[in-house]
Please model this.
Amino acid sequence: MANISFNVDAYTARLIGRENVSKLNGAVIELIKNTYDADASICILCYEQNNETLYILDNGDGMNEDIIKKHWMTIGRSTKKSNYRSKNGRVQTGAKGIGRFALDRIADVCEMYTASSEGNRIWKVNWEDFEKKENITDVTAELYEPSFGIESFISDVTNSEVRNLFSLELEKRAKIRAGIKTGTIFKLSFLRDSWDSQILQKIKNDLMTLIPYERKNEFQVYVFNSETSLQDATVLTGDDSYSYDYKISFDVSEIGKIKIDMHRNEFDFGKDFNEIMNEANFSEKDREYFKGKHIIEDFDFSTFLQDDVNLNTIGTFSGVFYFEKITQMKADKEIYYYKPELKNNSDSSVFGGIRVYRDDFRVRPYGEPNTSSSDWLQLSSRKQKSPASPSHPNGAWRTAANQITGSVFISRLNMTLPDQSNREGIVETKEFILFKEFIIKVIQYFERDRQYVFRKLRSLYDEKNEAIRIQEEIELKAQQSRELKEAEEVNESNQQQLSISLKSANESNTSITAVEAKIALDFKDSLIKDLEDENRLLRTLATTGIVTNSYVHEMKDNTNKIGLKMVLAQEELEFDRNIDGALKYLKEANDFRDSLNSWFNVTIGTVSRDKRTMKKVDLKSSITKMLSSWEEILPVEISYKFNRDEIYLKCFEYDIDSIFSNLISNSVASFETNYSENKKITINIIDAEQSIIIEYSDSGKGLSQSYRKNPDRILEAMESDKRNKNGETIGTGMGMWIIQRIVADYKGKIDLSMNDENAEGFSIKIKLLKR
Model:
């Protein structure tokens, strides 16, 4: 028996490179990453039109002959796999050993001049040889020692700005390398693309976000052609100022400690500062925040995300986001005290979106302008699902995708966020899903703060709004007009005096009478009432949808079982003439039908016509009937009691059904986590003097740690901590919001404070005012 060696077809090796570096901009970026890994302070791209040649220059450490032979010439081998930090401490970006095939993507022929502390070398290869040769070992490259220095290698570059800049930067770096000039130049000829002005501008635009703006003093990139000036070639330009309405920074430690730093920069109350702070009931801390102090808060994973995430399996990472509204409406400036419009940061077609950087280099395609990956966090979808304004008293405001930009910084040390082999994104691991959710949570943290401010300022404005005073005045004048008209018919002798009074009562700047205005107001109130009734019905239908979606499997299962039992009964009669057997199956089918009817009672039954009218409802009878339907279909113990034999409330009956359906659905979802074998729901209905009080609790898992600190958050739209096995959020986040809206309609209150102390289980106290 003989041992034989594997071999690789030369063209196969080339295909591997093309699969991993398929796009021109991706190939350029791979080569720039190599210059960064070599501790270069600059990288210069120069397209020479005269000979149609592309030069890539850097002032990094260069490569000695041993590295070229053992690593550069061995596909898949890289010095960065184990020694991933450069001499100057940079975390190096490459490690797969195939980035050199980026040269093949750009041109047929590559000539490299590399100068290191151990001498200078020229390496030259023709990539077409990989097609001509049979085996990988048959392909060779030239390697020799040049007789001239590195600056002479670019003597045919006609742009003097390139030669001067490179020489200057070589000298700067030589001062910290014992006077030795080091660096690398790639000379690429027989290019595969037409390097016209459009391609150069496109590459420059891509490179503008290649590295974080904050790193421009450490590493700079230039893009030249034969005529480009130094100023126009500079990729990262401008000052360090960055305009924003809100700035949100965060840091996550390896042990899962989270620090969030947020700056409100949107509001200017001027000389009215103290008055507004008092009248809008802002806190003492708010006063400091509006004066420039940052909001700084510490969390850990279990309180910021959910109970199931106690350990940080992602690793250390950080980020910074900037929110800036697109426009400022004149009316809004008056209500919300906006600062004067700030300068526009930059072209959103280049800098828009939230980008990801690994070791200070862009991970594509996240935040890529004008692509589907620009909004990779699906902020637009969030906005469409919850389009409420930031001042809306109940809805959850969401930022638009084009209003927020930023950067998230990860490292190669984040092992659970590995790059895809084609350099086009991060592998969709469970940690990557968690990573995206974390970023959304940070954005949500900012959204809640901005909505908090807007709600207070809107409320203050409404209190001072003249429209309320005008409406009350119209109501008064209309009443005076009616009284005077009635008096006129009774006592004509006082006509003159009445006319004078009537004229006084109807003084107005409008062309309509107070009576006519009252008719219009009544019509408006009628329309509002119709819309309110419609909203109530829609809330109930939404509850029906939530419950149906949660238990559709059980309902479908009952339907299938009814069909099966009917078939078995038919077979008993047709083939065995067994009446007793058939009756047995029919009885079982009837039991499943009863169960299905109970499902219908807690879903479709809630929107029956008799429940859609405002009336005096016998709560004890209504709630007992509804809870009995739930008991018939759920393996859950429901214990309930009433403090009086007769309890009545003027209400829409389907509102009460919606409250309990949403609460019970949440409890059952909590029980399904197998957190407790004792699946119990306890309900107390109390008839107080001016209100009906509902005390509800369960023995389930309770609120996740992320809500314990502020349990009222669960009442906001789109808030949910329900997850599937992959850790993805699956809850609608609408159930508790629906309850909150119903309670608000009845001028009631919700108390969730007991959940802050409860180690397990969920509790809620609801108060509904009697009408």
